[in-house]
Specification:
seven-stranded mixed sheet, 13 helices, binds pyridoxal-5'-phosphate, 37% helix, four-stranded antiparallel sheet, alpha/beta
């Protein structure tokens, strides 16, 4: 085994890191006398220490002011969702008026499809990736049923055409071109949850538009992971959650993007009072007048306690900057890949694209030898305080997050796999 595997090498990489480590600003789960090597930011990001103060601030305001809390001070609840707008727009590369924090991911996906999936005659199909996240598949199928259609008639699923289950841009292009006259909506992930493959959102939006379809994106695994440039991408809409790389806590309030060109759309929408034009909302009139921009899709007054941790998280993203985070992410994930190539090829096969441009933080690692060996390794890692996650039948996902992971964490993972494999032999 070579130098890559030495503690000194990993520590030198950490010491040379130009991004000041924000690791100290997170609560790292304990393991024995130390802390976990936590690689599950693709599922639930760690808690920023500052989250507690933001939540307590809301609790205190509620205790001390009750209903008046809606109207007093900088953090009044009437405009609280606006406190995250600018920074959120910065993370996803959008105009502030194009983003809103509201609801949950799947709820937002439905709201977006209510407006942007408008089947008309022959143009009634939705194109997705085969093996999409189940909630997306259920949402899409139920939208088809809602319009009197069925997945058999109107769902086009693009199969993976590359080894390891990734999809080439050529396959996406072919599928869009082949079905162009039928396509009402192309709904694609920013990063595929199982393989970790990242897609060129702008290129897919262009292809969808050229075919006459709407382009929507599920960015659950992309937000806070990759710089997205959503406005310039031309995407019509996007939805994402804030509990993964965005570290805003379990079930955190989600995100939604609606491109500026739809700011005053007369497409139908499912409306609620919080989407009504702010200036006249409290006249309590019977006619809905939408707020311009993404705000106009809000339904309810937002869960303030759910939004509070997002403020802490966004403040960190703003300080670090997406470009610096991405650069560090490429270094961490590249180191993980190099360690696997140098010493773990008999145990782990990387199914995520090798080109850094084709992935984010996550590497999806197929365990050589199949499910039983994979589960044994995964359980071993758990006992060692190394936390990734498991995807049936034989994949371990490891996602070094640049806000809190280090090269030393990555080495701890690789070293544990190497020792396990040699003890097995
Ligand atoms: C790709 C993707 N889509 C949708 C969802 C569902 O999210 P929610 O439960 O927040 O609606 C998830 C959750 O992990 C996901 O990873």
């Amino acid at each position: 085994m070579n130098d890559l595997y030495s503690d000194a090498y990993a520590h030198a990489l950490d010491a040379a890191d130009v991004l000041p480590s924000l690791r100290g600003e997170f609560l790292l789960p304990r393991h024995g006398d130390g802390v976990q090597a936590y690689f599950c930011g693709n599922s639930l990001g760690l808690q920023p220490r500052a989250a507690r103060a933001h939540v307590e601030e809301v609790l205190d305001k509620w205790a001390g002011e009750a209903v008046e809390g809606h109207f007093t001070g900088q953090t009044q609840w009437m405009t609280y969702h606006g406190l995250v707008r600018e920074q959120l727009a910065g993370v996803v590369g959008a105009l502030p008026s194009e983003v809103v924090a509201m609801n949950s991911l799947t709820a937002n996906l439905h709201l977006m499809m209510a407006s942007f999936y408008r089947p008309a005659g022959e143009r009634n199909a939705i194109l997705v990736e085969a093996g999409s996240f189940p909630s997306d598949r259920y949402a899409v199928a139920s939208q088809l049923h809602f319009h009197g259609l069925s997945p058999t008639q109107a769902l086009i699923e693009v199969e993976a055409d590359e080894a390891g289950g990734t999809v080439s841009m050529a396959a996406i292009e072919r599928a869009i071109a082949q079905h162009a006259p039928r396509l009402a909506l192309v709904l694609w992930p920013g990063v595929q949850y199982r393989t970790g493959q990242a897609f060129d959102v702008a290129a897919i939006a262009r292809m969808a538009h050229a075919a006459g379809a709407v382009a929507g994106f599920d960015l659950a695994h992309a937000a806070g992971n990759l710089p997205l440039g959503l406005h310039d991408s031309g995407a019509d809409f996007a939805v994402w959650c804030h509990y993964k790389y965005m570290n805003a806590g379990p079930g955190a309030v989600a995100g939604c993007f609606v491109h500026e060109r739809h700011a005053r759309t007369d497409r139908p929408r499912f409306a609620g009072w919080w989407g009504h034009d702010q200036a006249t909302r409290f006249r309590m009139g019977p006619e809905f007048v939408p707020s311009p921009g993404a705000d106009g899709w809000q339904l309810s007054n937002p869960p303030i306690l759910g939004l509070a941790p997002l403020r802490a998280s966004l403040e960190q993203f703003s300080r670090a900057g997406m470009d610096a985070l991405r650069a560090k992410s490429e270094r961490l994930t590249g180191y993980l890949e190099a360690l696997i190539d140098a010493g773990l090829r008999d145990t782990l096969q990387v199914i995520t694209p090798r080109d850094p441009a084709g992935r984010g933080c996550q590497l999806s690692l197929r365990v050589v030898g199949g499910r039983d060996r994979g589960r044994a390794l995964f359980d071993h890692l758990g006992r060692e305080g190394i936390v990734g996650d498991w995807r049936e039948p034989d994949v371990i996902r490891i996602s070094p997050a640049p806000l809190y992971n280090t090269h030393a964490d990555v080495l701890r993972f690789a070293g544990a796999v190497a020792r396990w494999a040699s003890a097995e032999a």
